Amino acid sequence: MTQTPLPPPLHDALVQLLGPSGVLTNPADTEAFCVDWRALYHGKCAAVLRPANTAECAQAVALCHAHNVPMVPQGGNTSMVGGATPDSSGLAVVISTTRMNQIHSIDHADLTMTVDAGVTLKAAQDAASAQGLLLPLSISSEGSADIGGILATNAGGNNTVRYGNARELALGLEAVLPDGSVLDLMRKLRKDNTGYALRQLLVGSEGTLGLITQAVIQLQPAPRSRETALCAVENPQGALNLFAAFRKQDPSAIHAFEFMSGTSMALVNNLIEGASLPLEAPAPAYVLVELASPRADDSLRSLMEDILGSALEEGLVTDAVLAESESQRQSLWMIREEHAEAQKRAGASVKNDVSVPLAAIPEFIADATKACEALIPGIRVAPFGHIGDGNIHFNLVQPEGADPAAFLAQDHAMMDTVAAIVRKLGGSFSAEHGVGQLKTYMMPSWRGGAELQTMRQIKAAIDPQNLMNPGKVLPPA
């Protein structure tokens, strides 16, 4: 006999629908689905459901809806804010999309890809690349994060400065609503002015309005020329000035523009095997800039050299290295992509995924650093991120030798300290990670009044029983 709080008729119907391997109830099998990537949340679930296609997913959702069972959609389980983790009641089922992993088609005329929600971003990127195309979204967790979760959280990433967030790349969606009905919005159209843009309502809803099952993703021609450089700068203002210099010359060439603080870079060099700083000496801050073009004979190298040459003469850049091969380019990107992992290995950390207007970035980093160091002496302030689009991951790592639990017990104090400065500068407390369950308490003061009330009304209209990812995004009424 299986041990699960699911009503026996529901359990039996789900097993008949999904097969024995499609319904996991043994705690040893479900445990990994109940803990988030950061290990901040340790929940329980009645079962993990693993549908293989939209039809199975829709029927499973309809069965759970009929029995009033809460459902937690989960893709690659890479959420930074506990958005895909069940609560501790053990009453909810996790619906995993990992078996829904088919790449259905790539359309060269429309430059689109039609994929299941469970396809990992890396698999989708590789499939596009094999046909000379580019899926322009790029994030650190792309080997694990899947398309459904990426769209549900409106992920951003390294190339947002050029191509936009996931929202800008989703032309069509298919989703299972909380009652099991299937919402088919799988249109490849760039122009479709026929009522409410429901796909945009689902993108960024973090699984609270429905479970994304398929998507039509916009692609781009693959770059045939690319130049990448790592630059040392004196401070965030220097990084911002360097961005302005590149944007002034050719904004369409900027593929990525990433900022890394000296503290965060030191953690990578000290804690990540194979990482090494390819510059003469450590610097207060760094920029990783990548230029790209679909033209094979584009003069990106001369553009990069001209801008960096002038920047070195002016003292805007103190040192720089240009990738001379694809392996060197990958090495530079590895340094950038390992910042989150290095901070995880350094101990407990509090992540502030925030955005402010570009001109306010230096003031934000300076003021927030000073405030957090005053709040917790010895704290390691390790900001990095997408300075080209105003998104800074203002991460706070515990003091060396400190008790991790005691440090995390002050997470709200730290987040509120940072958020107060973000608010003063006209920014947002969550730029790309979402709200999840970590930041729901911020919603009333940041998005209160008519805005939050409208969100509640939309949720109530689509999910009146509050069964789809309850406890996420919206705080208790």
UniProtKB/TrEMBL annotation:
* UniProt entry keywords in alphabetical sequence: FAD, Flavoprotein
Q: What domain of life does the native source organism fall in? A: Bacteria
For this UniProt entry, the molecular function terms from Gene Ontology, in alphabetical order, are: catalytic activity; FAD binding
Q: Where is the FAD-binding PCMH-type domain?
A: 41-222
The biological process GO terms on file are: respiratory electron transport chain
What are the names of the required cofactors?
Answer: FAD
The family note in this entry says:
Belongs to the FAD-binding oxidoreductase/transferase type 4 family.
Q: What is this protein called?
A: 2-hydroxyacid dehydrogenase
In its UniProt entry, the species of origin is given as Acetobacter okinawensis
